[in-house]
Write a structure and sequence with these properties.
The N and C termini lie far apart (68 Å). Strands 1, 9, 10, 11, 16, 17, 18 and 19 form an 8-stranded antiparallel beta sheet that branches. Strands 6-5-4-7 form a 4-stranded antiparallel beta sheet, with no helix packed on it. A 4-stranded antiparallel beta sheet has the order 14-13-12-15, with no helix packed on it. Helix 2 runs antiparallel to helix 3. 31% of the residues lie in helices and 27% in strands. The chain is α+β, with helices and mostly antiparallel strands.
Length: 369
């Protein structure tokens, strides 16, 4: 009757079972004499349990514990080891999830505005908000407020861009008086705040005053294209590997980059742009994302024929997409480096479909259209 079995007998039985399993687990690492000794100690404990004599059980338990400790030492820092194992497993699962399902991606430029925003700088004349408001703005909207003034007369010597943890981009502003780090890409610091090498600031003059708006952070769906081909109007992400006109303008040390654009043409499509309209196979593109861009409303400006591009530079010119390739366009056509400049995206370069804006919590938060 287990309910009325004394506690010392229950504990002794558990110890005997555990000792037997441990011996079985380590048998191939022990010598024959050690195995024999441990088996004898387990047998003594079982005999004492059968006799139900408390003193004999306690003595046999003590001998068994000493015997096993001498032959099979306890693991050092078992809790640490278990925690490390748990962390390794969690990291492996996260990496696997990213590799096969969703990959986080940061919008690098404004080529998809206003559908998706890259990082932008916003100079201000008014004072910065109070610290609490700034903290809320960062969490909710991804805004980093900056107030940098010249301590004395100083000249900008250089702008050095640095990326930390492969995700956070800073610009080190080097002046004749020191170095200052700004949480923004170099082009944002130069383009939006006018900070450039050679510029001289007088004592107390503003170098940067305002906020930097983080680019949209999105999840890229890596599974959908395993079951279907990319389709027109998808927002898709691809590698720049092998796209020569992109690679020739990149720092080789950075390796392949990831771009995000609107998929405008699939193999066999004939494209033409007669600003602000996009034509597919002779007809105005009918998919709603293209219609939205061509509406020239709510921040959209339509499609353009850039004279400096390689393709679709005039309203009459057409381009037919070759097999195993795609034609990419930015929704911000007047400020987008896309297939008009560097050509097709090879099918093998496609990473996945832009799926969801997870941060910041702006009006664009949610599924990507």
């Amino acid at each position: 009757m287990g309910l009325f079995t004394p506690r010392y007998i229950k504990e002794a039985r558990l110890l005997s079972e555990g000792a037997s399993k441990t011996l079985h687990h380590h048998r191939d690492l022990l010598q024959a004499a050690q195995i024999s000794t441990l088996q004898e100690l387990i047998g003594r404990l079982n005999s004492a349990i059968s006799a139900k004599k408390e003193q004999d059980i306690l003595a046999a338990t003590h001998e068994l514990e000493i015997g096993f400790s001498a032959v099979i030492p306890a693991r050092s820092h078992p809790v640490w080891a278990e925690n490390i194992e748990a962390i390794v497993v969690a990291v492996a699962l996260a990496v696997s999830f990213q590799a096969y399902f969703l990959k986080p991606f940061k919008i690098p430029t404004g080529s998809m505005q206003p559908t998706l925003y890259g990082m932008t700088g916003h100079p201000m004349e008014s004072p910065l908000p109070d610290p609490i408001t700034r903290a809320i703005d960062f969490v909710r909207l991804g805004r980093t407020h900056i107030d940098l003034k010249a301590s004395t007369k100083e000249e900008v010597l250089g702008l050095n861009e640095q990326t930390k943890l492969n995700f956070f981009t800073f610009t080190e502003v080097v002046t004749t008086e020191g170095r200052f780090s700004i949480f923004a890409p170099r082009d944002v610091v130069a383009r939006d705040f006018g900070v450039r090498p050679g510029r001289v600031y007088q004592t107390g003059e503003t170098i940067v005053h305002g906020y930097v708006q983080a680019g949209d952070q999105v999840f890229v769906d890596r599974m959908t294209y395993q079951f279907r081909n990319p389709t027109r109007s998808d927002v898709f992400v691809f590698k720049t590997t092998g796209i020569k006109r992109i690679e020739m303008n990149l720092d080789p040390a950075l390796g392949s980059q990831f771009y995000i654009k609107r998929l405008a043409g699939v193999p066999g499509d004939s494209l033409r742009i007669d600003a602000p309209k996009l034509f597919l196979d002779g007809s105005i593109a009918s998919q709603s994302p293209f219609q939205r861009v061509m509406s020239c409303e709510n921040g959209y400006r339509g499609y353009s024929n850039p004279s400096a591009a390689q393709y679709l530079t005039t309203p009459e010119e057409t381009f037919t997409v070759p097999p195993h390739a795609f034609f990419a366009l930015g929704d911000n056509s007047y400020n987008s480096s896309d297939s008009r400049y560097w050509g097709i995206v090879p099918e093998r370069n496609v990473i996945g479909r832009g799926y969801f804006v997870y941060w910041p919590f702006s009006e664009r938060w949610g599924f990507i259209r």
